């Protein structure tokens, strides 16, 4: 287990796929959390933070930092801000969209997801540093999965908080490609950046922290080559991930309601066009494809999640 590589003052709350990992930082002058999970899990997020505060005899959380604003990373923002009156830090490029609460620009409408409205107080600027708990972390741009995503790097302890730019066996869906924007090259550039850093431990957005960075980068590059060589692969994969994500929250859903959600989700409408399918064809294909992959099953008129 790689937890022993974490220096004092850092704890990782490993979540599942519906909620991104939370990274808890604490020191004499600062108590921070990186990413807040999905809104459906906000009570669990609050419980985890309160438990950590009590464990370490801390008074409150004063800073909440988001690596990017997909709903699984910031869905708990509103609840945490209300509970602790903490300052919220977001990537600088998202500031106007959050200020105006433009749910289309923030991707929630596009991806068919939900996120309670929150206010931000500070921004994360690539190239600058931020204090989290006891240590300074450098803010690094990490476009690809999300154009405005950032990573956080601690040079003294050689730790990278990679969000969804690098997982132990891949990376997050390259969403921009689903609606005709560049993403493959941006993922490649982010992987190149990671390779230049001396790293002993990666804390990903999902999954356990890991230390074999060379292996993970090779896996990620192989995956990128596979997707980029035929963009239909990324489109099909992205569509299945979006439905699976929603199904994780629903647990089970009448297939009619599933199809209504599909035809009203802009990213999936764009994906159907990329795949040259009509929406009727696409709504027939997508649930069946998820079942075929073993991630769901059909029982009568209901689509059920399979963990």
Task: Please describe what this structure looks like.
With 307 residues, the chain is α/β, with parallel strands linked by helices. The protein folds into two domains: 2-228, Metallo-beta-lactamase, Chain A, CATH 3.60.15; 232-305. It has eleven helices and 14 strands. The strands form three sheets. A six-stranded mixed sheet has the order 1-2-3-4-5-6, covered by helices on one side. The chain has a five-stranded mixed sheet with strand order 7-8-9-10-11, with no helix packed on it. Strands 12-14-13 form a three-stranded antiparallel sheet. Helix 6 (184-196) packs antiparallel against helix 7, helix 8 packs across helix 11 (279-292) and helix 9 (255-263) packs across helix 11. It is globular and about 60 Å long.
How are the SSEs placed, and which strands pair?
Blueprint: E1 10-13, E2 22-26, E3 31-34, H1 42-55, E4 63-65, H2 71-74, H3 77-84, E5 87-91, H4 95-99, H5 108-111, E6 122-124, E7 129-132, E8 135-141, E9 150-154, E10 159-163, H6 184-196, E11 201-204, H7 213-228, H8 231-250, E12 252-254, H9 255-263, H10 266-274, H11 279-292, E13 296-299, E14 302-305
Helix pairs in contact: 6-7, 8-10, 8-11, 9-11
Major sheet description: 6 strands, mixed
Which parts are unreliable, with pLDDT below 50 for 5 consecutive residues or more? none
Helix content: 25-40%
What is the N-to-C order of secondary-structure elements (H for helix, E for strand)? EEEHEHHEHHEEEEEHEHHEHHHEE
Structural class label: alpha/beta
Quick one: CATH class of the largest domain?
Answer: Alpha Beta
- Number of domains as seen in the coordinates: 2
Rounded to the nearest angstrom, the distance between the terminal CA atoms is: 23 Å
Shape: globular
Q: What is the CATH architecture descriptor of the largest domain?
A: 4-Layer Sandwich
Mean pLDDT rating: 95
* The CATH topology of the largest domain: Metallo-beta-lactamase, Chain A
Within CATH, the superfamily of the largest domain carries the name Ribonuclease Z/Hydroxyacylglutathione hydrolase-like
Q: Helical stretch count?
A: 11
Q: In order across it, which strands form the biggest sheet?
A: 1-2-3-4-5-6
Overall radius of gyration = 19 Å
């Amino acid at each position: 287990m790689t937890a022993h590589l974490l220096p004092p003052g850092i704890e990782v709350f490993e979540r599942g796929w519906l909620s991104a990992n939370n990274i808890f930082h604490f020191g004499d002058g600062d108590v921070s959390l990186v990413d807040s999970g999905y809104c459906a899990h906000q009570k669990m997020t609050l419980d985890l933070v309160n438990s950590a505060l009590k464990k370490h005899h801390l008074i409150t959380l004063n800073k909440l930092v988001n690596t990017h604003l997909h709903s699984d990373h910031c869905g708990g923002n509103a609840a945490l801000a209300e509970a602790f009156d903490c300052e919220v830090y977001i990537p600088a490029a998202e500031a106007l969209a959050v200020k105006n609460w433009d749910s289309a620009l923030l991707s929630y409408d596009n991806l068919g997801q939900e996120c309670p409205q929150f206010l931000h107080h500070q921004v994360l600027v690539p190239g600058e540093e931020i204090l989290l708990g006891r240590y300074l972390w450098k803010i690094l741009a990490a476009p690809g999965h999300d154009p405005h995503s950032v990573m956080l790097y601690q040079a003294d302890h050689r730790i990278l908080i990679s969000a969804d730019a690098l997982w132990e066996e891949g990376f997050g869906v390259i969403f921009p490609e689903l609606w005709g924007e560049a993403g493959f090259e941006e993922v490649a550039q982010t992987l190149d950046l990671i390779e230049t850093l001396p790293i002993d431990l990666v804390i990903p957005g999902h999954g356990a922290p890991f230390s074999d960075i060379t292996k993970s980068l090779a896996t990620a590059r192989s995956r990128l080559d596979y997707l980029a060589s035929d963009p239909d692969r990324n489109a099909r994969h992205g569509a299945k991930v979006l439905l699976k994500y929603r199904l994780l929250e629903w647990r089970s859903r009448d297939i009619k309601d599933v199809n209504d959600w599909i035809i009203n989700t802009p990213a999936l409408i764009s994906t159907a066009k990329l795949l040259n399918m009509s929406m009727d064809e696409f709504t027939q294909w997508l649930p069946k494809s998820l079942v075929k992959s073993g991630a769901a099953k059909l029982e009568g008129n209901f689509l059920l999640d399979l963990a």
